[in-house]
Amino acid sequence: MSVELNHTIIHARDNRESAQFFVDLLGLEITSEWGPFIAVHLSNGVTLDFATIPAEHIVTQHYAFLVSDDEFDAAYARISEHGIEHYADPHRQQPGAINHNDGGRGVYFMDPAGHVMELITVPYGGWTS
User: Fold this and answer.
1) Which of 34, 51, 85, 98 is the most exposed place for a label (fewest CB within 10 A)?
2) Residues 6+ apart with CB under 8 A from 56
3) What is the structure's pLDDT at 128?
4) Order of all β-strands in the sheet with 30-34
């Protein structure tokens, strides 16, 4: 068996708010709820398990998602429609823009808990042959 990421826990001030933000933005579904977790399954089998913890214990993390061009277009339209602050770069020096790194498109924005989210259409370094 090869090693694969199965799930990760994403700390949130409100697990439902953060999970709903994510599924609304990317057109996904909340797939299960158990214990303190609200789960969202991604197409590659990885589960994001959102868990409510006290805000003062949340450490900002970075989550990058590889999406298709169509998924990027739909998500970026929602980002724009909802007035979500977004940037072409992780240092937030290029507000209201996207990047074209590695021949694709990318955008950075914050989720409700303050995590840095990134959508990219091409992996860093470009497509492998």
Assistant:
1) 34
2) none
3) 55
4) 7-12, 47-52, 37-41, 30-34
CB-CB contact of 116 with 90 (8 Å): yes
Q: Which helix (H) or strand (E) holds 71?
A: helix 69-81
Q: What is the pTM of this model?
A: 0.94
> To which H or E segment does residue 26 belong?
helix 15-26
* Angstrom distance (rounded) from CA 97 to CA 102: 16
pLDDT for 38-84, tens place per residue? 999 999 999 999 999 999 999 999 999 999 999 999 999 999 999 99
Residue pair 25/67 in contact (Cβ under 8 Å)? The answer is no
Of residues 81, 82, 71, the one with CA closest to residue 119 = 71
> What is the C-alpha to C-alpha distance for residues 45 and 99, in angstroms, rounded to an integer?
27
